[in-house]
């Protein structure tokens, strides 16, 4: 049985399956791409052929445009198997955002799972993560330090609603990433009983419309630009991080600045962003979830694609699992390190 290092390689264009001659989440335009999810650092434009879940393809078309999301698009249902030059390929849900998937590859009895980004907490807007047994598990490590242990998202939503009740004349402005985090927050608010309109920055509207077209109900959503100042007293507004500094925010009523991100576990990140109400809501696995997931896969070897690979590799080594840092090029918005900037805060 060949070791995965002999047939799955890191190249300047990304992770390349040599016998199948395709890339997983390539960093530049290629002939054949398999895409784990529609965030910009994983789903880039210009590929000739793209294979992904139907939801990811729809979100790519909405984000990139019909002509840039891949000339040929092949949707694949979770669990459905295709064979490319002898390589068996199938997808398993990753639980990150709508349509997100792990890419499972098997060649000559050797199996690798490329997880992309994933989370283990329940999310009403996407299918939950499903572990797949493998010889090598390729994982992220965005929150690969023991300090990162995410609270229940319902607790953070309860904190937001308690603040709204405490300050009924103020607008609560919640910073969040446009794809995935925004829709999850809306769904969690609805489940918590908030049925009033949720106001959105215009850049968040397109992804919400696509989610609803794909069968995810989000309730009464309205653009902030259509609101009078009085309507925003006591309201919840979702916007990209940093939007409070934009001119449109002048219509808000003494806003409480909040940010929904796993990085809000670290207080100096919140202070540096001027965040009054940090909400620890992440679309990535935390430290315990990373380790538990790796154990579930049964993989004796783990490739760590980004984040704090050193800490995770050390923890794995103590359990007899080989951890290997798998550095790749072309990082962009949606990925995160230990010291995130605005784009990383938004996505995590």
Automatic annotation (TrEMBL):
Key words of the record: Exonuclease, Hydrolase, Ligase, Nuclease
Enzyme class, UniProt record, top EC level: hydrolase
Alphabetized Gene3D superfamilies for the sequence: 3.40.50.10890, Ribonuclease Z/Hydroxyacylglutathione hydrolase-like
Keyword Nuclease belongs to the record: yes
EC number: 3.1.-.-
Domain Metallo-beta-lactamase, first and last residues per copy: 33-141
InterPro entries registered for this protein in UniProt: MBL, Metallo-B-lactamas, RibonucZ/Hydroxyglut_hydro, Xnuc_lig_assoc
Family matches, as Pfam families: Lactamase_B (PF00753)
GO molecular function: exonuclease activity; ligase activity
Matches recorded under NCBIfam families: Xnuc_lig_assoc
The protein's name in its UniProt record: Ligase-associated DNA damage response exonuclease
Organism lineage: Bacteria, Pseudomonadati, Pseudomonadota, Alphaproteobacteria, Acetobacterales
